[in-house]
Amino acid sequence: MAGDVEGFSSSIHDTSVSAGFRTLYEEGLLLDVTLVIEDHQFQAHKALLATQSDYFRIMFTADMRERDQDKIHLKGLTATGFSHVLQFMYYGTIELSMTTVHEILQAAMYVQLIEVVKFCCSFLLAKICLENCAEIMRLLDDFGVNIEGVREKLDSFLLENFVPLMARPDFLSYLSFEKLMTYLDNDHLSRFPEIELYEAVQAWLRHDRRRWRHTDTIIQNIRFCLMTPSSVFEKVKTSEFYRYSRQLRHEVDQAMNYFHSVHQQPLMEMKSNRIRSAKPQTAVFRGMIGHSMRQGSSSGLSTEFKGGI
Questions:
Q1: 304 near 283, Cβ under 8 Å?
Q2: Which of 13, 41, 43, 16 lies closest to 27, judged by CA?
Q3: How many CB atoms lie within 10 A of CB 114?
Q4: Are β-strands 33-37 and 71-73 bridged in parallel, bridged antiparallel, or unpaired?
């Protein structure tokens, strides 16, 4: 009947549109823009670029001079990186390696191709190790990558491997004062004895004499009451920083008082004796059971404690 209307949809429409653009691209047909990067020229379809990239969508639809140009020069990225990104926009696939990921990530961030940025981040985090950790940190920082979950996974690796990383000159060079403070304040460092964290701090300070001005501040994030008395005597009081830092001498005096005040330890609440643990702790001392009421509270744990449970 004339009044009946039925709707139909194609299950292959999206695929056929993509395939159609690929065919036109491969045959060099209806290409309406040339992108010049370094000494290379890349021909493409404005419509395809605009559907894949917010950067190009704004360029070709907003009131920008490039909208009506058929040759556009792009600076701030490499031809190698962009060639991979352009390939992805047409074919939906991309190959990554530690050799090329830097340039591809740069190009993907430049044209705001978030899917490729995510692929690069996943690739880097899957490849992260002690040897390339500093390089990956620098890469993500340089391009301002702010993809959900990426920083959390990177920080998780850093906290899990903090002490070994702090033995590497490249990591010591790149790690900033602000990030060091953040990591030292994190209770997920519980797998490392506190004396090792102190020695890691010493390594960071020694790496650059200009960092010594931060000594007093950094020292306050080391929990000296969690060390053994022998560690304090043999490794802390003998260091050059003990003579240099008034705050360090204060922290050591406080720890020594804690060690000698065995019966008062359960009542002494301070940052220096808080256990590094992301989980509530139960401690046995002097025949009693003490339950930490706050995350990280020592509740009088023995000074022999060397890590979280």
A1: no
A2: 43
A3: 13
A4: parallel
Confidence of residue 272 (pLDDT cuts 50, 70, 90): low
The reported pLDDT for the residue numbered 294 is: 39
Which residues, other chains included, contact 272 with Cβ-Cβ below 8 Å and sequence gap of 6+?
222, 223, 224, 225, 226, 251, 254, 255, 258
- Which pLDDT band holds residue 309 (cuts at 50, 70, 90)? very low
Judged by DSSP in three states, 113 sits in: coil
pLDDT band at 15 (very low <50, low <70, confident <90, very high): confident
Starting at the edge strand that comes first in sequence, how are the strands of the sheet with 40-44 ordered? 40-44, 33-37, 71-73
3-class secondary structure, 36: strand
What the block records as the tokens of 173 is 């060079």
Pairing relationship of beta strands 40-44 and 33-37 according to DSSP bridges: antiparallel
Q: Which domains does the chain have, with CATH numbers?
A: 14-157 (3.30.710.10)
Over residues 162-195, the pLDDT tens digits come to 999 999 999 999 999 999 999 999 999 999 999 9
CB 204 within 8 A of CB 171: no
